[in-house]
Amino acid sequence: MVDNKQNSISRWVGWLLPFLIVITIKLFSSCPTLVESYYSLQLYHPISYSLRILFGWLPFSFGDVCYIVIVFYCIISTTRYFILPYKNGYSLQIFKRQLLKLIKALLWVYIIFSLFWGLNYERLGIASQLNLKNNSYTDAELKDLLCYVTDELNTARLALGDSNYVFPGIDTIYQTAINSYATATTTFPFFAYRHPSVKSSSLTFLVSYLGYSGYYNPFSGEAQVNTDLPRFYMPFVTCHEMAHQLGYASESEASFAGYLVAKQSGSSLFRYSALFELFLTANSELMNRDFFSALLNIKSLNILVRKDIKTYRNFVLQRKNNLEPIVQTAYDQYLKANQQKSGIDSYNELVGWVIDYRKKYSSNN
After folding, report:
1. Cβ(263)–Cβ(274) under 8 Å?
2. Strand residues in the chain grouped as ranges (E)
3. What is the pLDDT of residue 10?
4. Structural domain spans, the chain
5. For the chain, which end, N or C, has fewer CB atoms within 10 Å of the first or last residue's CB respectively?
6. pTM of structure
């Protein structure tokens, strides 16, 4: 009798505790100022440092291994708890019990995700740190930005030399990204980056197939890069993923932080990569507003840049498949559920950040 009562209390506590934690997280996240001050700038940093110290030294992606194990575990568990009982005489009571276990597990996954990284979606972020607003911009502002970027992009590509330029190795790109963040801290102290954990994805084929250039694992603190990418595009992607490690959860903010770091890097390749991304994003937006002006921008690029654009487009087109739109739609909904109203289009908000930054600080940036 006593044991049954204790078991009943334990079950109630087992359910009540995660629900109370989730409610607390939701209430706390409703105030971005509190999230910025107490989580993003205080609690998150030691968590992220600890994760990078724990797993950064490994020569492979620990997070990728965990993902693979979890997938196999889910397949086995689904077979064991849902499919086999159905074949052997399914019971509604068994189904409810397994479903409740699944819900409880998902609650704890959400809690860990939020505490390890997810609360950063609710922070004030780079807008507060640089006193910027990512507002809409006029056609004139967009064309002015592209005029600047086109000239800078041509100059940056010529600085790399001719078409025989030999790109550095992947490890060199990662180390240069780390050095670039160190350089950027002289201007942006909040970009301080310690205990590096930047790795090549162990799931490169799958990542390319699903249409991703890189990703951040919030459970291991590792930044993973798709090494199938054209080598000139990898520096920007690396800086973008490292920005996620610093707590910039929003894709647009991570892109903007990555752009600022790569643009101010001592590496000509990194500056070129940052400008290349900005040009593609801005000119794509202009295509929707003024097709012929966007076309003239492409024609004004030097032949080496146009060759790189063709290489990048071929890379994207060769990996088009029927599954990618489904995955991208799911990711779009995930972003919208995490305070990114534009969903997957939030990547394009890089343009708004750069325009406002140039207006506020210097027309030369």
Report:
1. yes
2. 198-200, 214-217, 222-225
3. 67
4. 2-122, 126-360
5. N
6. 0.88
